[in-house]
Amino acid sequence: MKSADVAADTAAPQPGSPLRAIAGSRLAHWLAVALTLLALPHLPGLDGNFGRSLLSQMGIAAVFAVSYSLLLGQTGLLSFGHAVYFGLGAYASIHLMRAIDAGLAIPMPLVPLAGAAAGLFFGMLFGSVTTRRAGVVFALISLGVGELVFAAMRILQGFSGGEEGITANRGIGPHPFGLSFGPQLQVYYVIAFWAMAAALALAAFLRTPVGRMCNAVRDNPERAAFVGYDPVRVRFVAFSVAAAFAGLAGGLHALNYEIVAAEAVGAGRSGTVLLMTYIGGVQHLFGAVLGAIAITWLQVSLSDYTTAWQLYVGLFFIGMVLFAPGGLSGLLLMHRPILATRALGRVLASYVGAAIPALLACCGAIALLEINYRRATQPDAGTRMRLFGISLDTSTPWPWLAALALIAIGAWLARLAAPRVKAAWADAMEEAAARSTPRKGAP
Amino acid sequence: MLEIVSFSLLNGIVYGLLLFMVSSGLTLIFSLMGVLNFAHASMFMLGAYFSYQIGLWLGFWPALAIAPLVVAGIGALIERYGLRHVHRQGHVAEILFTFGLAYVIVEFVVMVWGRNPIENRVPAVIDFPAFLLFGTSYPAYKVLMMAISVGMFAFLYLAFRRTRLGLVIRAALTHPDMVAALGHDVPRVFVFVFAIGSALAALAGVIGGFALLTEPNMAAELGPIVFVVVVVGGLGSITGAFIASMLIGIVQTFAVALDFSLLDLLAALHLSLGRDSAFHELAAVKLSQVAPLIPYLLLVLMLIFRPRGLLGTRES
């Protein structure tokens, strides 16, 4: 998707590489993304109502996560209250939708702009206070502002509808080109359009001088100040822009669900966007998109099978923090240097060899967790349950023993396979290094 | 009126002391390790659940001692096998690690005790009226809560001021490199402090569990308020945390007890606000409704006017 594009964006410019070629490949990438977005809701499996609704949710989450990535990844501001701007944008949009329902002549697809405007307004309002400091203090303030706004939304029932929320109808209002925006497909295209516009705008923002200074302020605020940029102002600008895009995502949320409740500004949503962005990887904007897609898919698909999906997401997140701080995108980009090497095949083969036992161990762990979860949360459902298509009785010790055995065997085999992965990786890196050295001499 | 004031004051002090027990551990961990521990309120929750479970098996008094010890052990393990590895990647990674941990601990609690609140009643041994105040009895368990928190702090204060270990910890707070150069195992001090902080939170959980509601959401409810206390008091200042805890505890308890709104105030001043005015909804909000909002309002005001907190010495 936007991978190569954003990666090229953050990588140091190659001396001597023709500008025109870069611009050409850039355009090609964006076109490819646009075509993919156009085609997705017609692919088999995604062309039903469920698939299109899933794609819409992913689009909303992606805009939100990309805006968060601008904050955490590009500017180094760890926020625990980013949903404030999402939710307030959603509220502004739903109120505009109600006004349209009452007769205001604005086409529905423009509604998210109201969300972006509200996000920008509140981002500037709160940001003027919160961005004075970075780091831990900023994290704490963002948490406090988040709780403050959430509590306020619960109190101001007339404006927010409290926990039940307020509703609107997106089908009323002017119908440009005969589009009613009732069907999910039309809503998806509205979301896809705004997501694409947001991605383009953010990528462009990062290429402006102030966008560049965001990275400088993240890495070394003192030096940024010496260059002549006030870090507080740079943080404020980045924060406001991020809030505007969060508001845009909120507007899309209002348009998609036609309901906004107090939880839209809540700590839960702020936490989820943090998980998404970090799991996807904060170094590149496209990592946030990746994370949004992955976590939304997990939320939607896992919640059908298990009530424990938050546990899995939490464990996955901790695993990422401990072992892969670059996130999914970091893991993918790690392989770029070895793509052309002959050792690539061996690396992939060693992955398969390690993945099978690791999967076994995971199955064992999942079985153990699911059995326990079921016993605690549905004690009336009896002791018989189905897991991985197998029917088992949790009152006997066998399922427990089998799960433990799976974990032990899987872990043991994975340990055996680990040195092979390491060796294959080392070979591949060596080959890649040997290939790139002579090229360094070229002009 | 005097009755409301004195009862609110007593309840406010009890709540404030509870907040202090949790927040002092957090601020201790923060000032020593620079780690903003998002899983700290989860330790409070684990304390409540463990004491409930141990109380079922052994009774209240053993639970009061064992639950904090178990949580201290968990805290030590988290520091030794989790945080220490993330430490190299910087503070953001540490915060994120504890943030993820808080998620997982909630789900662990759900997995063991279910999603609904458990019946964590006040144990019979301490469920009797302690004294009469204006003809209304004051429950003994609240007195016990006060006694335990005050006793704990006297003990901690003396341990920090009068023992050799306390000296090493205090030195490690400001000069970790020098302390290590003198031959003390600073990483072990980290483990120890993390364990003590967790145990304090757990102890607060044991005595707070039956005063509040013991449910999987309790960590998420208390956590942000504890952060507010730590910021308002000044990051890293124990005395500041004490003042802030008492302030928030008492103010919040009083706000809950007062049923006034801006409209009432206006009416007392012989002013009136039309029902169709845009501010009518805002003005009709009662003070008791605003109570949960007060700590965060205090936080924002504090950060605007005095960013280093009441007694903080540094801004970040």
Short structural summary:
Chain A has 443 residues and is mainly α. In chain A, 73% of the residues lie in helices and 3% in strands.
Beta-strand content of chain A: under 5%
> Strand order within the widest sheet of chain A?
1-2
Side-by-side strand order of the widest sheet of chain B:
1-2
Oligomer: heterodimer
**Main sheet attributes: strand count, strand direction, barrel closure of chain A:** 2 strands, antiparallel
Separation of termini of chain B?
A: 43 Å
The CATH C-level class name of chain B? Mainly Alpha
From the N-terminal CA to the C-terminal CA of chain A, the straight-line distance is 30 Å
CATH fold assignment of the largest domain in chain A:
ABC transporter involved in vitamin B12 uptake, BtuC
Largest sheet of chain B: 2 strands, antiparallel
Rg over C-alpha atoms of chain A, rounded to the nearest angstrom = 24 Å
Tally of strands of chain B: 2
Query: At CATH's second level, what is the architecture of the largest domain in chain A?
Result: Orthogonal Bundle
* CATH domain class of the largest domain in chain A: Mainly Alpha
Residue fraction in strands of chain B: under 5%
Query: Topology as H/E string of chain A?
Result: HHHHHHHEHHHHEHHHHHEEH
Largest interface, chains and sizes: A-B, 47 and 49 residues
